[in-house]
Amino acid sequence: MTVGGLIAVVAFWFFCLHEKEPSYNGRKLSEWLDDFDSPPKAERAAIAVRAFGTNALPNLVKWNSACSPFLSPLDDAFWKRPVVLRSPLTRIHKFFDAKDAKNNHRALIGFGILGTNAAPALAPLERDFETTRNSEQATRTALAIRSISTEGIVYLFHAAHRCGFPKDQAARVEIWQIERSTISKPLLITTLLNLSADDDPMVVADAISALGRIHSESDRVIPALTNALSSTNEETRVRAIAAIQEFGREAASSVPALQCALRDQSGYVRRYATNALKFIAPGNLR
Fold it and tell me: Beta-carbon neighbour count of residue 261 at 10 Å?
């Protein structure tokens, strides 16, 4: 290796391993965030991170999107490289992958501590979500947005379908936790109703199912679920019927639509409609 090449390698490693960070009480942001994982130090670490305030945001946004620039053995292009390069590439990838995972974790902790005070980071996070092709980063970014704003719920629903199984599970678990959280139910219902009109049919289906699990505010939700029975998407119609059934007799206004569903061209839909009517208004089965 030439002297110039050696200098370039050293400079590259120095750049990757030594990031400029703000400091508080003589310690870097990353050091305070690492302390948060230790229960005896967590409270003091949270106070320190809040003291950083918006000064922490550039690093947190960067760490959230950290992704190894080196080819992973999971990438098709990796196997097109000469055999002699694969072993060192694998080692380099593992090193950076571990470093990136640590920074990803720091970012989620930081956004969680700062909460709504991290609002200035919403724009770059939303931009990262829209442009990333990495499914794990999509979920991570949705979780970061969720820490800052209730709009994160929308991103989580979309992340759950951008990621294939099992990578979608982080987004789905968070969605289920939100349904059981103390978040304002009217706000959550409004968000889910908006999602039930989304362009992505799978997002629509999941939003409808969530409305059924929550079974709240029937005066707003039942009309929306009843309208969903006219969807051209079979899965949407099935999920809508299942959600309506969760409301029991509160869903009496949907009976005429359920009776129409008994004549649906899909046997799957007809079975669900029959079961729902048995539960809601058995006397209306015909």
Answer: 24
Query: If you search the block for the tokens 């310690």, which residue do you land on?
Result: 27
Set out the domains of the chain in order of their start, with CATH numbers.
1-182 (no CATH), 184-286 (1.25.10.10)
Rounded Cα–Cα distance for residues 144 and 260 (Å) = 43
- Cβ distance 278 to 255 under 8 Å? no
Q: How far apart are CA 11 and CA 255, in angstroms?
A: 70
Per-residue model confidence as pLDDT tens digits over 72-120: 444 444 444 454 444 554 454 454 456 778 888 899 899 999 999 999 9
d(CA 13, CA 11): 6
Token pair recorded at residue 95:
């090193």
Helix (H, G, I), strand (E, B) or coil at 7: helix
The two tokens of residue 43 are 């409270």
Instruction: Give the burial string for 26-36 (b: 16+ CB within 10 Å, else e).
Output: eeebbebbbbb
Mean predicted lDDT score pLDDT of the chain: 80
Return the C-alpha torsion angle 96, 100, 102, 108, nearest 10: 180
Tokens of 79: 């196997």
Structure tokens, 1: 């290796």
Spell out where the chain has E strands. Answer: 23-24, 27-28
Give the CA radius of gyration of the chain.
25
Whole-number Å distance between alpha carbons of 218 and 211: 10
Any idea which residue has 């304002």 for tokens?
184
